[in-house]
Amino acid sequence: MPPAATPTEPSANASPSRALDVFFKIADAWKLSIEQQITLLGAPARSTFYKWKKEGGLLSTDTEDRISHLAAIYKALQIVVPDPHAADTWIERPNKYFGGRSALDVMLDGKLTDIYAVRVYLDAQRGG
Questions:
Q1: Cα angle 26-30-35, degrees, rounded to a multiple of 5
Q2: What is the 3-state composition of the chain as percent helix, strand, coil, each rounded to the nearest 5?
Q3: Contact status, residue 102 vs residue 95, Cβ threshold 8 Å
Q4: What does the pLDDT look like over 98-110, one tens digit per residue?
Q5: 23 falls within a domain
Q6: Which residues pair with residue 126 across a beta bridge?
Q7: Per-residue pLDDT tens over the stretch 55-75
Q8: What does the pLDDT read at residue 49?
Q9: How confident is the model at residue 126 (pLDDT cuts 50, 70, 90)?
Q10: Is residue 60 part of a domain?
């Protein structure tokens, strides 16, 4: 059985559909609920979320930035935590750096800066 495709960070000129494909692969790997996915995408209307999931669509710059940072977080975790399962569950574990909260809890506060804070932490951990 071939290994599952690994989500990669969308490039600056990636199509919105490509960015959404990356996001939904990450969401599956991290076993995110629909509510968590909606929050991480910047709280689009549920109808917009389901449209994106079914057929893609246009994204705001904020949503594109969120997906880009989430992809970078995913990629950094694959480097910092060599075991794929441990890398995918790392976001759920309490972390001293985040005051005992998990990275997912921090990101689910809902602001782009919350996602960015997790990215900065992981970039520092991998020496980037």
A1: 90
A2: 65, 0, 35
A3: yes
A4: 999 999 999 999 9
A5: yes
A6: none
A7: 888 999 999 999 999 999 999
A8: 96
A9: confident
A10: yes
In this structure, how many other beta carbons lie within 10 angstroms of the beta carbon of residue 27? Answer: 19
**CB-based contact 56:20 (threshold 8 Å):** yes
Structural domain span for residue 20: 16-125
Residue 128 and residue 77 in contact, taking contact as beta carbons nearer than 8 Å: no
Give me the count of residues in the chain: 128
Q: Which two tokens stand for residue 25?
A: 């692969």
3 lies in a domain?
A: no
For the chain, the average pLDDT equals 89
Cα radius of gyration (the chain): 14
Alpha-carbon distance of 108 to 128, in angstroms, equals 24
99 in Cβ contact with 52 (< 8 Å): no
pTM, two decimal places:
0.86
What's CA 28's distance to the chain center, in Å?
A: 10
